[in-house]
UniProtKB/TrEMBL annotation:
PANTHER family: ALKANE SULFONATE ABC TRANSPORTER-RELATED, MEMBRANE SUBUNIT (PTHR30151), TAURINE TRANSPORT SYSTEM PERMEASE PROTEIN TAUC (PTHR30151:SF25). It is a multi-pass membrane protein. The lineage of its organism: Bacteria, Pseudomonadati, Pseudomonadota, Alphaproteobacteria, Hyphomicrobiales. GO terms for cellular component: plasma membrane. It comes from Methylobacterium brachythecii. SUPFAM superfamilies: MetI-like. The chain crosses the membrane at residues 62-83, 95-116, 122-143, 188-208, 220-245. Keywords: Cell membrane, Membrane, Transmembrane, Transmembrane helix, Transport. Pfam families: BPD_transp_1. This is ABC transporter permease. Residues 58-242 form the ABC transmembrane type-1 domain. Belongs to the binding-protein-dependent transport system permease family. InterPro entries: MetI-like (IPR000515), MetI-like_sf (IPR035906).
Length: 250
């Protein structure tokens, strides 16, 4: 009963939001060229579908997203594991991390263009940078948080090498924390997609910039909602995968 009530309240809130959004441009409270009413969005979406632009843009952005996420998350997990397991490595890289961590992903755009040109590799680089730090710190923290008693027990049973400790103790125990970082990275990567494509790389970001330059704000909203829907699908799938990977937990 409570769940049904919560769902009803959520739907009511969404309906009120859509009604206010619809009324604002129709009552000339907001210029419709700047904020189109939601009733115009389905027609704009069908237009993009028919001309083939939507499918091409989504395919391009998905390729950048998946590769950038894989590269950034892979590097973050790898270096986070090493930094979490070996104090000397953490000390060695401490000032490098402090120097590079505060630099926002957009600040790397000029170098991405210089190094890779206006090509998909540049977008992948920006997305990977946005993802890397989240996964790195999540992995490092998860490894640091592993119960030291587990490590001592593993050593007592003969798992004394770094590799055996990693496979048998560190990685399984740190997996929940790493997965939390990866889930956060899923959303961060989508936010980085637009930033990575606005300088000319084909994809959703480029299509949004083209539409905004023509004041086709209904098309902009179409792609904003597309990104939200895609993120929802990825997040739902990841939660299911997370539950399967952690099925051993009580």
């Amino acid at each position: 009963m409570n769940r049904l009530r919560s769902t009803g309240l959520a739907l009511a809130g969404l309906l009120v939001f859509l009604c206010i959004w619809e009324a604002a441009p129709r009552l000339d409270l907001v210029n419709p060229a700047f904020l189109p009413p939601p009733s115009t969005i389905p027609a704009a979406f069908l237009k993009e579908i028919r001309n083939g632009g939507w499918l091409v843009a989504v395919w391009e952005s998905l390729s950048h997203y998946l590769v950038g996420l894989a590269v950034g998350a892979g590097a973050g997990i790898g270096l986070g594991l090493v930094s979490g397991m070996f104090r000397w490595f953490e000390n060695l890289t401490a000032w490098i991390v402090r120097l590079l961590r505060p630099i926002p992903g957009l600040a790397w755009v000029p170098f991405a263009i210089i190094w890779f040109g206006v090509e998909p590799r540049a977008a992948i680089f920006i997305i990977a940078i946005a993802v890397f730090w989240i996964v790195f710190f999540a992995t490092q923290g998860a490894v640091r948080g592993v119960d030291r008693d587990l490590v001592e027990v593993a050593q007592a049973f003969g798992f004394r090498s770094a590799w055996s400790r990693l496979v048998k103790i560190m990685l399984p125990a740190a997996t929940p924390g790493i997965l939390v970082g990866l889930r956060t990275a899923l959303g961060q990567a989508w936010m980085a997609v637009v930033a990575a494509e606005i300088f000319g790389v084909p994809g959703i970001g480029q299509r949004m910039m083209q539409a905004s330059s023509l004041l086709s704000t209904d098309i902009v909203v179409v792609y904003m909602l597309t990104m939200a829907a895609l993120y929802g699908l990825f997040d739902t799938a990841f939660v299911a995968l997370q539950g399967w990977l952690l099925r051993w937990r009580p």
